[in-house]
Amino acid sequence: MKFNALVEDRATRGLRLAILVAVIALLFAPGRLYALAILATLLFIYGVRRRRGGLRYVLPIALLALFGGAALLWANHERGRVERYLDRNRPLDLSYVPDGAYVGVGPGNNGPIRVKLHVAHGRIAAIDVLENHDAAYAFDDALPKLIGQERLAVENQAGFVFRNERSLAGLQAALEDAALPALFEAPRVSKWAKAVFFATSNQGGRITVNALAVLFIALLAFDYTLGPALRPGLGQSLNCYNCQACVGVCPVKMVAGDPFPMTMVLMARLGDVERVVQLAKYCVGCGKCAAKCPVGNSGPSVASAAYFIWRERQRREQARRDREIRTSTGEAAPPAGGADA
């Protein structure tokens, strides 16, 4: 599929939204699993609506979903082995941990907690907090009391009144994550399992309905502006104020009860070039709208640009039908410069 066709064709809006959701899935970790589920659903719907040729989208999505489910089950099994080991041996004994510095990450209230654990002679020599998005005072009492200890027992070291239990649990998890690789008998979560957890991270409890609504509106707004912005002549439709100054000077003024040419410009903004072409036949090409518009939008210019887009769509659709007919009848393809050129 050509890039221009992907950008301006309303029939491919589901695919464009799927691409945007995939990008957001990489950037928006708390809802990455939700985003991937929406992505799979959009691509599945797009494949079903395509009918002919849609199986090439539906089948890979189904296979990827099965593979992803199996990978997630395997990764949870890997993590379960580590959690069972921690349940049996918590608090971890550092007596057999070689001297050195170890980095670990744990979940906090507002983001990851990253620490560097310094071990010397089987005891905690120092703890450096490399990253912390929670309250600045969350570890003020806990960290000094851990220095010199042989075991990682954060929950027993907190003494201040306004402590945050989840922050302390995240600190405990980060210290355990740092120490586990140094313990010979401890099981480890493989890099592949960590990659699966990264791809399917989900903290749905932190996502509000308002945030989802704003995200959805942002997706649609971006998609609706993407097509006109990249198509010559239609980008001006994004500047329309809906002031109807053009309607006041237009000799036509109304078409089927809608203000003209403002409705034509708004349809161009939404990517409905078929409707623009239908309305364009009422435009007399006088250019009064461009002279009156505060941003200089031209109805005849928008109509002309939409017509060329519509004509290109018709050409592509006819070429697709010709290919299907030749495939079904076994007819040879025409030479270069023919109908599919």
Explained architecture:
With 341 residues, this protein is mainly α. It has three domains: 3-87 and 203-218, no CATH class; 93-182, Enolase-like, domain 1; 232-329, no CATH class. It contains 13 helices and five strands. The protein has helices at 3-8, 13-27, 32-50, 55-89, 142-146, 165-179, 191-199, 209-230, 245-249, 262-269, 273-280, 288-292, 299-329, and strands at residues 100-107, 112-120, 123-131, 254-255, 258-259. Strands 1-2-3 form a three-stranded antiparallel β-sheet. A two-stranded antiparallel ribbon has the order 4-5. The two termini are 15 Å apart.
Highlighted features:
three-stranded antiparallel beta sheet, two-stranded antiparallel sheet, elongated, Enolase-like, domain 1, single chain, 341 residues, mainly alpha, 54% helix
Integer-rounded radius of gyration: 30 Å
* Estimated structural class: mainly alpha
Distance between the termini: 15 Å
Written as H for each helix and E for each strand, in order along the chain, the element string is HHHHEEEHHHHHEEHHHH
Number of helices: 13
Overall geometry comes to elongated
Strand order of the largest sheet: 1-2-3
Number of strands: 5
Number of separate structural domains:
3
Q: Which whole number gives the mean pLDDT?
A: 78
User: What fraction of residues sit in β-strands?
Assistant: 5-15%
Helix content: 40-55%
Query: Would you identify the regions where 5 or more consecutive residues have pLDDT less than 50?
Result: 158-163
